[in-house]
Amino acid sequence: MLVKKLAADVSAYDGKQVVLQGWVRTNRKGKNIGFLVINDGSCFANAQVVYSAEQDGFDEIAKITLGSAVEVTGTFKATPDGKQPFEIQAEKVEVLGMCDHDYPLQKKRHSFEYMREIPHIRPRANTYYAVFRLRSVLSMAIHTFFQERGFVYVHTPVITGNDAEGAGECFTVTTRSDDHYEKDFFGKHAQLTVSGQLHVEPFALTYRNVYTFGPTFRAENSNTTRHASEFWMIEPELAFADLDDDMDCIEEMMKFCIRYCLEHCPEEFAFFEKMIDHDCVKRIQKVADSHFQRMTYTEAIEHLLKAKDQFENQDIFWGMDLQSEHERYICEKIVDGPVFLIDYPKDIKAFYMRVNDDQKTVAACDLLVPYVGELVGGSQREERYDVLEQRMKDMGMNQDILQWYLDLRRFGGCKHSGFGLGFDRMLMYMSGIQNIRDVEPYPRTPRNLIF
Amino acid sequence: MLVKKLAADVSAYDGKQVVLQGWVRTNRKGKNIGFLVINDGSCFANAQVVYSAEQDGFDEIAKITLGSAVEVTGTFKATPDGKQPFEIQAEKVEVLGMCDHDYPLQKKRHSFEYMREIPHIRPRANTYYAVFRLRSVLSMAIHTFFQERGFVYVHTPVITGNDAEGAGECFTVTTRSDDHYEKDFFGKHAQLTVSGQLHVEPFALTYRNVYTFGPTFRAENSNTTRHASEFWMIEPELAFADLDDDMDCIEEMMKFCIRYCLEHCPEEFAFFEKMIDHDCVKRIQKVADSHFQRMTYTEAIEHLLKAKDQFENQDIFWGMDLQSEHERYICEKIVDGPVFLIDYPKDIKAFYMRVNDDQKTVAACDLLVPYVGELVGGSQREERYDVLEQRMKDMGMNQDILQWYLDLRRFGGCKHSGFGLGFDRMLMYMSGIQNIRDVEPYPRTPRNLIF
Asked: Where does the record place the Aminoacyl-transfer RNA synthetases class-II family profile domain (chains A, B) (predicted)?
């Protein structure tokens, strides 16, 4: 019997005998009565088990340590006037696995840093217990959103030979201990993917609407709270769609995911609100209820110039890359809500973004949201062979390696658009968790590879 | 307007004006009339567009090449007596992207080998077009099955430092071109994961029921039709569950996935039946309707000994690893349906499998199905610290690296079980496709890394 099931229908189980398995969260013993709080993994809530001095083995039950696995047989009792909605009057408590006394998770608050050293144990601590369930639910929200709309899920490859894009530093994948890659497993240099976008575009030009959802990698030696070497990305791609269609899809997806998670994780969000970030539910609920505004990069620069004095980086000019403080100013002070910045200078954006008629900007969009700044980046893709080829030349890219990608423009190409959502950052945004290391089951960062 | 939507409600659209975008599959011109068959990616079925010599631009439409992207405006016409259920009487056909004449996909049958050279184009060919949609639908079936049952989805890491298991050869992940891994990005040797199981077990000991679904890797230099260097695996793990519970879960999952796919991909399966494997639907339907039997390895060996003469490998003895011909004999000739073989000799199974009371066998199960043999492998995990530690010693494993895994047995350990399903093989099994290279979007195999 699962706690989730019992909690969902307290009156139906009142007075019934139940058998539960779970792990001990606390064990308090008084003179005549003891309380064993167990969690069985099925939901955030615990079950309180009451045992009494009158029953066999009172002292043994009292000795059950924190973290132990137990099986409880007892009578379910609705407690409408109690702090918990129900409790279990124990008849029998069997220890399935006693927890040793050097259990790393004692009944006190541990620091996030300490917890990162014990990724095999920390899911049992409330914060992580809530985060990793939300991670699962948000994954399902993503799949549900796209599949219900007929998008085809594509497993783009993790290992790629496609190192032309140059989006940050890459990990090499090899079976050798030198750089004779021509003799390597694949007969050439191979690396971990930095993005599935180029690989998924051919599928958009087949199925119209597609998405990837998988791990991506960066070998950047940067130790920030927002960067990990391994993280999951969602990269949808839509054929016959321009930048406006792209933004409509982003907006719809964001709202769907927020509502889905609020609906499926009410206890987890109540916990985040209480313990992690008081405003998190209000913040995302507001996003779900907003109309996402749209503003050009050029307009944004004008706003920033007027407010120059407020920034740490005061060197504001057209053509600059916006920093987080600038992005937050735009969405928090100017718009007071989510906003798409569009039409960025082409020199600060990727080669595949469609050049606008002004020849200076590209049809890109970044979704900025209060509290974090950029959350999603998208663009209409350059579908004109000549323009794309010229842009690759201008940027000094190796055309040979991406000839297949160029060829998509010769073989029934059409206007298409797509975007990328960093899954882990979305999770941080929703929960209020400040460090990407605390939303990933086994975070990988420079000089940090535990298990 | 999507073809899928039109096809689903032909009578509602009869006589209405519609606008479609899609890619030209064929274009036949007669003297007074022409037929443009387009596919818009929304479903397997094409839409037939009729254009006539009486309209403007007849000759231009007739010149539209195979593979081109077009937008068609016309009148939808239900054709209950025709070969297709509907057609579009064109008013206007606009070319969005003309396809060049060196288009690699001409109107003839191409070999699978040829197709593998053009992974950016082949999704448009019927076989791949059907396979990759099924791939997406089967993914969703997996997620739906587990999420509906409260399983938590865990993103186990792709990069791991955990090279103790020794399950086949591994890819190194590095930013260096020598083997000074102590100076490497992570400060030690890192590799691509071969299985998420060890990393997911801590989550089962927290959430009770969990699963992974992600890419895994093998650097084995074997060129077979069933091995790829990168493939996706599903690895569920169930706490408080023994081998019987594990098999129940496998059986339920298999049946659910088959029914889900048959329901969501009827056109794709009709195609597979006609063009790839006449028996595929019958075969999987039978599995969905079967009770999965259970037989010990020891019994299986007895059956095989009696039928020895029928095998290529006639060296049958207790303790041997069964080969595909043996597995198929058991499920096809002896059982005539899906069967779990259980209680394998411990010497041919992994260190983490629970040792049975006979001390000779482990609580493992392999699901054998007609036509392919083994499809799923599972086991109850060794939850006894001492037994697990001894087994690791016996197998010469480095205990230091897996001390965290051993410790799970000291910190509230309990009986638990899990299994692994090779996603790509499941897809082969369902579709009848014979080569794993033809069910993966960008297959990676020795000396083969395209894009």
From this structure: 132-441
Token pair, residue A149, equals 């709309």
Give the closest residue to A449 by CA, choosing from B71, B181, B103. B181
**pLDDT recorded at residue B437:** 98
Mean pLDDT, residues B294-323 taken together: 96
Shortest alpha-carbon distance between residue A291 and chain B (Å): 25
Whether residue B62 sits in one domain with residue B129:
no
Residue B367 structure tokens: 């699901």
Q: Do A132 and B120 touch (CB under 8 A)?
A: no
Mean of the per-residue pLDDT values for chain B?
Answer: 95
Q: Which helix (H) or strand (E) holds A72?
A: strand A69-78
Residues of chain A contacting residue B98, judged by C-beta atoms under 8 Å apart: 412
- Structural domain contains residue B65: yes
**A339 and A375 in one domain?**
yes
Tell me the C-alpha distance between A410 and B99, whole Å: 6
Using DSSP, state whether A219 is helix, strand or coil.
coil
Task: Dump pLDDT digits (tens) for B226-272.
Answer: 999 999 999 999 999 999 999 999 999 999 999 999 999 999 999 99
Residue ranges of chain A with per-residue pLDDT less than 50 = none
Q: What pLDDT is recorded for position B32?
A: 92
Q: Which of A169, A188, A450 sits opposite B449 (nearest CB)?
A: A188
Grouping H, G, I as helix, E, B as strand and the rest as coil, residue B412 is coil
Q: What is the ipTM of this complex?
A: 0.97
A90 plus A120 within the same structural domain: no
What confidence score (pLDDT) does residue A441 get? 98
Inform me whether the pLDDT recorded for B109 exceeds 90: no
Supply angle C-alpha A63, A67, A71, rounded to 5: 75
B174 in Cβ contact with A170 (< 8 Å): no
CB-closest option in B156, B202, B230 to A158: B230
| Phi, psi torsion values for A159, nearest 5 degrees | -90, 130
CA–CA gap between residue B287 and residue B285 (Å, rounded): 5
The CA distance from B45 to the nearest CA of chain A, in Å, is 12
Residues B88, B135 share a domain: no
Question: What distance in Å separates residue A407's CA from the closest CA in chain B?
Answer: 9
Nearest to A207 among B41, B208, B232 (CB): B41
pLDDT-derived band at B104 (thresholds 50, 70, 90) equals very high
| Interchain CB distance below 8 Å, B219 and A175 | yes
Phi, psi of B147 (to 5 degrees): -70, -40
- Based on the fold, state whether residues B182 and B84 are members of the same structural domain: no
CB contact under 8 A, B185 and A229: yes
Question: What residue numbers bound the domain in which B209 lies?
Answer: 116-449
Closest residue in chain B to residue A179, using alpha carbons only: B177
Interacting residues of B356 by C-beta distance below 8 A, sequence separation 6+: B343, B362, B363
Do B217 and B326 lie in a common domain?
yes
How many cross-chain Cβ pairs, A to B, lie less than 8 Å apart? 297
SS3 of B279, please?
A: coil
Nearest to A414 among B69, B232, B240 (CB): B69
Structure tokens that stand for A212 in this block: 């990837």
Chain A residues whose beta carbon lies within 8 Å of the beta carbon of residue B135: 153-155
**Integer Cα distance of B55 and A10 in angstroms:** 71
Q: Are B172 and A175 within 8 A, CB to CB?
A: yes
Domain count for chain A, please give it.
2
- Which of A71, A99, A215 has its CB closest to that of B411? A99
By C-alpha distance, which of A177, A18, A23, A142 is closest to A87?
A18
- What is the structure's pLDDT at B230? 98
**Mean pLDDT within B301-329:** 95
Q: How many helices (H) and strands (E) does chain B have?
A: 14, 16
pLDDT above 80: residue B167: no
Calpha distance B73→B5 (Å, rounded) = 16
Q: Which residues contact B302 (CB under 8 A, 6 or more apart)?
A: none
CA distance A299 to B23: 38
